[in-house]
């Protein structure tokens, strides 16, 4: 996941910057269904924010239907779209996790997917 920084000179509150950043990436498909978000505490530390600020952003994302928070298990992106899109998101996430476990770079993983798509009937 691409990192971002809070724009302290912006009139937009930090919690809204966090919420909007995740919402845009989820809606755009950069974060697919089932993807785990960073912990509230971890993201707050990374961004130099209070944990309550990040928690507020996560609550708003949940209210808006972007994520599901599962207590101590964390917060996860909710699959979006029709059944085929949700299944594709789940398959893409499983593939990405497997490539990570195998130590395959993102560039190589994308190359493998492109080749497989060209070869598929």
UniProtKB/TrEMBL annotation:
GO terms for molecular function, please?
DNA binding; DNA-binding transcription factor activity
Q: Which SMART domains match?
A: HTH_GNTR
Q: Write out the coiled-coil annotation as residue ranges.
A: none
Presence of keyword Electron transport: no
For this UniProt entry, which residues form the secretion signal?
A: none
Kindly state which keywords UniProt assigns to this record, in alphabetical order.
DNA-binding, Transcription, Transcription regulation
Q: Please report the stretch or stretches of sequence annotated as the HTH gntR-type domain.
A: 12-80
Q: What is this protein called?
A: GntR family transcriptional regulator
């Amino acid at each position: 996941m691409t990192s971002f920084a809070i724009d302290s000179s912006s009139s937009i509150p930090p919690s809204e910057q966090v919420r909007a950043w995740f919402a845009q990436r989820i809606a755009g498909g950069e974060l697919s269904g089932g993807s785990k978000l960073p912990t509230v505490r971890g993201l707050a530390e990374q961004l130099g924010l209070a944990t309550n600020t990040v928690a507020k952003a996560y609550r708003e994302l949940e209210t808006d239907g972007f994520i599901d928070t599962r207590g101590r298990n964390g917060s996860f992106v909710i699959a979006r779209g029709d059944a085929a899109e949700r299944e594709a998101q789940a398959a893409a996430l499983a593939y990405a996790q497997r490539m990570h476990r195998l130590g395959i770079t993102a560039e190589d993983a994308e190359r493998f997917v492109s080749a497989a798509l060209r070869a598929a009937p």
